[in-house]
């Protein structure tokens, strides 16, 4: 699916991070998403501090993200009908899924 237009900024997004078994590890509605011409930037604060991911999309719209503040990698794909980014994450021997819901009334509405 096509991601929001480059230059779009979304504040107050809801991020939900789940473990591999589906348990909710983190759930917050203060995530920021910035769609730039060449990359996606996701940032939020959890119990350990700032979490900032950035990365580029491949030809199929899958973003390969690196966390700047942790040894974490992730992937996200935009789901147009859900107005959300969904994907997976991995840090050391832990992994799971995550979802970022964009707020209504932002760019693309």
What do you see in this structure?
This protein has 109 residues and is an all-beta fold. It is 0% helix and 64% strand. The chain has one domain (8-101): Lipocalin. It is built from no helices and 8 strands. Strands 1-2-3-4-5-6-7-8 form an 8-stranded antiparallel beta barrel. Strand 5 and strand 6 (72-79) form a beta hairpin. The model has no long low-confidence stretch (mean pLDDT 91).
Query: What shape does the CA trace take?
Result: globular
CATH architecture: Beta Barrel
Low-confidence stretches: none
Separation, N- and C-terminal Cα atoms: 15 Å
Feature tags:
109 residues, mainly beta, Lipocalin, 8-stranded antiparallel β-barrel
The gist of it:
The protein is mainly beta and 109 residues long. 0% of the residues lie in helices and 64% in strands. The two termini are 15 Å apart.
Write the layout of secondary structure elements.
Layout lengths: L7 E12 L4 E12 L4 E7 L2 E9 L4 E6 L4 E8 L4 E8 L2 E8 L8
Antiparallel strand pairs: 1-2, 1-8, 2-3, 3-4, 4-5, 5-6, 6-7, 7-8
């Amino acid at each position: 699916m096509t991601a929001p237009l480059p230059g779009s900024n979304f504040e107050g997004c809801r991020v939900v991070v789940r473990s591999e078994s589906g348990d909710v590890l983190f759930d917050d509605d203060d995530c920021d998403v910035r769609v730039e011409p060449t990359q996606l930037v996701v940032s939020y604060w959890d119990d350990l501090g700032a979490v900032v991911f950035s990365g580029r999309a491949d030809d199929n719209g899958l973003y390969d993200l690196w966390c700047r503040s942790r040894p974490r990698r992730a992937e996200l794909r935009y789901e147009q009908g859900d107005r959300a980014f969904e994907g997976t994450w991995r840090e050391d021997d832990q992994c799971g899924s995550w979802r970022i819901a964009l707020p209504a009334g932002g760019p693309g509405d």
